[in-house]
Design brief:
The structure holds two protein chains of two kinds.
Chain A: H1 2-20, E1 35-41, E2 47-53, E3 60-70, E4 76-77, E5 81-89, E6 94-96, E7 99-103, E8 108-114, E9 123-132, E10 135-143, E11 154-157, E12 164-169, E13 178-188, E14 201-209, E15 214-215, E16 220-226, E17 229-236, E18 240-250, E19 253-264
Antiparallel strand pairs in A: 1-2, 2-3, 3-4, 3-8, 5-6, 5-9, 7-8, 9-10, 11-12, 12-13, 13-17, 14-15, 14-18, 16-17, 18-19
Chain B: H1 2-5, E1 7-11, H2 26-39, H3 41-46, H4 48-57, H5 59-68, H6 75-79, E2 85-88, E3 96-99, E4 107-111, E5 114-115, E6 136-143, E7 156-162, E8 173-182, E9 187-198, E10 201-212, E11 215-217, E12 221-223, E13 228-241, E14 245-259, E15 267-284, E16 290-306, E17 316-335, E18 341-360, E19 367-389, E20 394-409, H7 412-419, E21 431-444, E22 448-459, H8 463-467, E23 471-473, E24 478-481, E25 489-501, E26 505-525, E27 538-561, E28 564-576, E29 590-598, E30 603-611, E31 629-642, E32 645-654, E33 676-684
Parallel strand pairs in B: 4-7, 24-27
Antiparallel strand pairs in B: 1-6, 2-3, 4-5, 6-7, 8-9, 8-33, 9-10, 10-13, 11-12, 13-14, 14-15, 15-16, 16-17, 17-18, 18-19, 19-20, 20-21, 21-22, 22-25, 23-24, 25-26, 26-27, 27-28, 28-29, 29-30, 30-31, 31-32, 32-33
Classes of the chains: A mainly beta, B mainly beta.
Chain lengths: 265, 685
């Protein structure tokens, strides 16, 4: 019975999460139990910048909030403008990744995709460029991205133009048994520092349970809704490990396939 | 009169009793009341008419006495002997009663009128599996929507009444003990009951303990995973208040463990039922013929299905289920001088059923779903029925019952599961379930009687049909999904019955016809993918346009001499689904003939059973045809009576020629038991 109650609670919370979402293309989850991901002070000692998230950062798509605190008063303030870019620093080189700003103003929310885990001599940071009270700041915010057995990330090389594409589920943390909105982000690698959204694709997918060999009914293929996000519907009939097999088409031609595994609780 | 009601009453009263309905004076009435109290106060008063007829004619009593043989038999053993009844097996335990080819979806089984919800999604625990004959007093089988004792049904009702503590001024303590052993499954049974009474208080305790290993089918075919263990006990307390009031409290507990189900991919590590009821009963009016009673009850079932003892399992899984039911029943019975009667019953009930499934793939997190996602059902019903003589030759019986019920999912998890199909919960809906019946009986001469009975009934879809979620059925290897939007099923029934009874010959033939609309059937859904490993598809429970079921039942009894009799029964059913194809699980033509001879030293009872092949099979259910079979059984018994005590010994042999056979209604094609030799000893004091 304990199990039913706790599952019921999880469901209720999930429904609340979904219920609170604003009418945006990417659903920013409200930060109810924010996790501090990274924190740094500006060099002039005026501000403290924090990156918060509902979950610790994982491979793939991560939503985060930025908060700015005026150190002298302890009050929070809003940047005039800001931008963010995730950078992986390697031994002798560096590369960027996909990043987007979801909201600015009172709530400053962004998202970043990490395509590889950190390792020895390799680490991720988010470079925040802010204008606070007319002064420009550039902050290096180190973040931890551990490796994972089931990364929320898949990639394929296009059979059409040999470009590398990456795919991640933007709302994977809201999934539960039942019918779920599916928000997939697809982007490609133009250069080490240029990772634009892929907006001209057709995506079909099929969920299944690898250990059972069955899928689920009534799923809806995601359709592009803007900025590389594709919205559809995915149904899960039980908890456990699910695999989402994606097939990607461009101009009516199949250009690649990939899958993402997830452990549904 | 029993002929005119088509309610079959079986007296399971161990010591026999007498009942009289005409009382010359108060003294005689008191004697009658005492005699009633001897075994079952409530059952006997309510069933006065039928009991009276039964004890007067003596013949059917003999028949049932003979069938009953010994209380050491299990419920399954004697239920399948009833005309029209068959027991469908999944192993050697908890057979499922079927009536005229209708399964438990169309059979409401109650105990003392109490509603009980089985807790197994795979139908491993019909209510009959939680009963034992040694705490049963009567069994009423309502064919068609007649009667008002059971819940709304499109098929029929089966109500067990339990034994109550006995008031017997001559004997303060009495009881019995018994032992039985059978070879085919190495099965032992031990049982006992004891009754104590004094000054208006009475207590009865009984228990049965059975255990068996794997059984052998015919030709020494070992049926693995078929053993079981069971303990059933009950405690009853009755208190008389004044001359006409009685309070009863009754508790029954049934515990079974390590039960094998060879026809299924899973076994049951524990099945537990607890039932508690309190009843207040009052007799009133002229000669206290009228009665009323109020009952409050609660019961709960826990059923733990798992496959931890099976080898070669692709993936282990647990499928526990539990139900709780609470309810109250208020009923009255008014009988006038001429024997015309009118009954009313008001009932409130509330039940909760929950079942879940957890699968454990190797090296991965477990997979969880709710197969019965917290199903709440509650309802209210009002029923009235009666019987009256229109003339010396014609009697009429009629009844009307209305139930309103609501059924919905309580678990948010389960509601989300159905989002996958775009189906919503049904919390807002009250469903009306009306039942009406009318019967006419006319005497044709002094020995013949013609009866015609019609009824209309509606039933609520059951848990699995409405909210079941990927429940595997091993008979057709399909996963079954319920439909929250499924509609109730309706049935129209017409029975024609002819009875001839002379002093030495009884003959009764019943021709029955059912026509169902919105008939609930699993219909293959090619869009959905099976979930259970090895399943070949998914069926969704759906309202199919119609189905029909027709057939014939024949019962005859010859009294060859005062000490020798012959009984023969014949049953045949024919069912068609909405496409005119055969319905699944329709028993073939079946015949049973038995004789009993009271010889000087022993009573001997040979019996022969024949079932034709069933070649009308449901292709939709991937049914295969079943060959015909013959069975021969023999039983010999001896009673020693002394000082109001009785020692009875029975030795018998079932399936004498060790035939390897199965019945068409059995699951999984498993064989029925082969040759079984049993010894049965009981001592009554």
């Amino acid at each position: 019975m304990q199990k039913h109650i706790s599952l019921g609670l999880i469901m209720a919370l999930t429904i609340q999460f979904l219920g609170c979402t604003e009418d945006q293309k990417v659903e920013p989850a409200p930060f109810q139990n924010p996790n501090l991901v990274s924190k740094a002070n500006t060099t002039d000692g005026k501000y403290q910048i924090s990156i918060l998230s509902n979950h610790s950062f994982q491979l793939g798509y991560n939503l985060w909030n930025m908060e700015v605190e005026v150190l002298s008063s302890g009050e929070s303030t809003e940047p005039d403008e800001w931008n963010a870019s995730p950078i992986m620093e390697m031994h002798s080189s560096a590369h960027g990744s996909f990043s987007e700003i979801i909201s600015t103003g009172v709530e400053n929310q962004g998202a970043a995709v990490f395509q590889m885990p950190e390792g020895s001599g390799m680490s991720w940071k988010i470079i925040l460029d802010l204008k606070l009270d007319g002064v420009d700041y550039s902050m290096d915010m180190p973040v931890e991205v551990p490796s994972s057995d089931m990364p929320n990330l898949a990639s394929f090389v296009s059979s059409k133009d040999s470009q590398s594409y990456f795919l991640s589920i933007a709302n994977i943390n809201s999934f539960s048994v039942g019918s779920n909105e599916l928000d997939i982000l697809v982007f490609k690698k133009e250069s080490m520092m240029d990772w634009p959204a892929a907006e001209d694709l057709v995506v079909s997918f099929e969920p299944s349970m690898p250990s059972m060999g069955h899928g689920s009914p009534n799923n809806l293929d995601p359709v592009h809704s803007g900025k590389g996000h594709y919205l559809g519907k995915v149904n899960f009939t039980m908890t456990g490990v699910w695999r989402l097999d994606f097939t990607i088409y461009q101009e009516s031609k199949k250009i690649g396939e990939c899958f993402i595994d997830l452990d549904l609780q | 009169m029993i002929k005119s009601t088509s309610i079959i009453i079986i007296l399971l009263v161990l010591f026999g009793f007498e009942a009289h309905s005409q009382f010359a004076n108060q003294e005689e009435y008191q004697a009658w009341l005492d005699s009633l109290a001897k075994e079952n106060y409530i059952a006997n008063t309510i069933l006065l008419e039928e009991v009276n007829v039964l004890s007067r004619s003596g013949k059917e009593k003999d028949f049932y006495e003979y069938l009953r043989g010994n209380p050491m038999n299990s419920v399954d053993d004697f239920v399948h002997h009833l005309p029209g009844m068959n027991m469908s097996r999944k192993g050697n335990y908890a057979s499922e009663p079927m009536m005229r080819g209708m399964d438990i979806n169309r059979l409401e089984v109650n105990i003392d009128g109490m509603r009980i919800k089985p807790a197994c999604t795979d139908r491993m625990d019909p209510v009959t599996s939680y009963m034992e004959p040694n705490n049963m007093a009567t069994l009423e089988l309502e064919k068609g929507s007649e009667g008002f004792k059971s819940a709304s049904s499109t098929g029929h009702g089966l109500n067990f009444t339990t034994k109550s503590p006995v008031f017997d001024r001559s004997r303060q303590v009495k009881g019995m003990v018994g032992l039985k052993y059978g070879t085919v499954a190495n099965e032992f049974s031990q049982m006992g009951d004891v009754n104590w009474n004094s000054k208006g208080s009475a207590v009865r305790f009984n228990f049965v303990n059975r255990w068996a290993g794997n059984y052998y089918g015919g030709e020494k075919t070992l049926v693995e995973n078929s053993g079981f263990n069971k303990l059933n006990f009950s405690l009853g307390y009755s208190q008389q208040i004044g001359e006409s009031d009685l309070i009863k409290i009754h508790y029954i507990q049934d515990e079974a463990w390590d039960i094998g189900y060879p026809a299924l991919p899973m076994d049951v590590s524990r099945a537990s039922a607890k039932m508690l009821s309190g009843t207040y009963l009052r007799s009133f009016g002229a000669e206290k013929r009228n009665s009323m009673d109020v009952k409050f009850y609660y019961n709960t079932i826990v059923h733990i299905m798992d496959d931890s003892k099976r080898e070669d399992v692709v993936m282990h899984m647990d499928m526990p289920g539990e139900t709780q039911t609470i309810g109250t029943i208020f009923s009255t019975r008014l009988v006038n001088q001429k024997g015309n009667s009118i009954n009313t019953k008001v009932e409130l009930y509330n039940s909760y059923s929950f079942a879940e499934m957890t699968m454990y793939p190797e090296g991965q997190s477990s997979m969880y779903m709710q197969t019965w996602p917290g199903i709440r059902q509650y309802g209210f019903s009002v029923g009235v029925d009666g019987k009256a003589a229109l003339s010396s030759k014609t009697r009429v019986s009629a009844g009307l019952r209305l139930e309103v019920a609501k059924m919905y999912m309580e678990e948010d998890f389960g509601i989300s599961q159905f989002d996958v199909f775009g189906k919503e919960n049904t919390e807002e809906e009250f469903t009306p379930l009306p039942t009406v019946f009318l019967g006419l009986d006319r005497k044709l001469g002094s020995k013949s009687n013609l009866g015609i009975r019609g009824s209309y009934g509606v039933r609520m879809p059951n848990n699995s049909e409405k909210f079941g979620f990927y429940i595997f059925n091993s008979t057709d290897r399909f996963d079954y999904v319920g439909d929250p939007e499924i509609q109730p099923e309706n049935s129209f029934k017409l029975d024609l019955e002819y009875t001839y009874q002379s002093s030495r010959f009884t003959f009764k033939v019943t021709q029955f016809n059912y026509y169902f609309t919105n008939y609930i059937l699993g219909v293959s859904d090619t869009i959905l993918q099976a979930m259970t490993p090895g399943a070949q598809g998914v069926k969704t429970y759906s309202n199919t346009s119609n189905a029909s079921l027709n057939g014939i039942e024949l019962f005859s009894q010859f009294e060859l001499s005062p000490k020798t009799g012959l009984i023969a029964t014949i049953n045949y059913s024919h069912g068609n689904d909405y496409e005119g194809e055969p319905l699944p699980f329709i028993p073939p033509f079946k015949m049973m003939a038995s004789t009993y001879s009271r010889l000087k030293l022993f009573t001997i009872q040979p019996e022969v059973v024949y079932a034709a092949a069933q070649n009308r099979v449901s292709e939709k259910n991937i049914e295969s045809s079943t060959p015909s079979f013959w069975l021969f059984n023999f039983k010999i018994s001896k009673d020693y009576q002394f000082n109001n005590k009785r020692l009875r010994g029975v030795v018998g042999i079932e399936n004498i020629f060790d035939n390897l056979y199965r019945e068409h209604i059995d699951w999984g094609g498993i064989p029925r038991p082969g040759r079984n030799i049993f010894v049965d000893l009981s001592f009554s004091f």
